[in-house]
Amino acid sequence: MKKMWEWIEANSGLVQATMSAVTALVWMIYLHIIVSGLRRQRRTEILIHLGGARDLSGRILVSNLGFEPIYVLEIMLNVWTEKGERMSSVADRTEIAQEQYQTPREATLQGPLKSGESVDIGSVVDLVERARHSSFDDIDVGDLHQIEIIVAAVTAADSAIAAATRVFRIAGQDDDLKLCPTTLDTQQVRSRRRRNKIEAKLKSML
Length: 206
Known about the structure:
- Keywords: Membrane, Transmembrane, Transmembrane helix.
- The chain has 4 helices and 10 strands; from the N terminus they run ααββββββαββββα.
- By secondary structure, the chain is of the alpha+beta class.
- A hairpin with a 2-residue loop joins strand 8 and strand 9.
- It is elongated and about 90 Å long.
């Protein structure tokens, strides 16, 4: 024990430098944990899920699972048929007559969504009917092989748009069509390239 203390006294400069380095390393680890926690809290998490029946009458729900509120900027429907791939906006609730609106907010699905809140965006049949008002006039529900729902939103935490997508496969025939998600969970769009692509699509729809 005496020899150890003698060695410490003889190498006090080295010991002090080592302790300072260890202390700095500990603080860097704490800082990393704090910053990572803040990033997770501010990161958007949009859930697109199916409620009720598993056929085309099932309700498509959009939920905000992030800690920050979001503003739903656009909802797009991408469909695949034998004729190819088509995309259209389905944010405006065209299936409801104007005289049935209680408030102007009911005319569209665009708007704020607080943390933990969900919004029913309609069934697949509703989404296709909305799309028919723009560019899907020659597409019927029975023509669908696969659909993709894309939700684009903005937040106060990021200048770029936030987005999430989920793909559903249409299985079955005639009146026995089933909606089958191709992934276990919603795919969050994190990459800058994909977000820029969605943003460019939104601009082209203005």
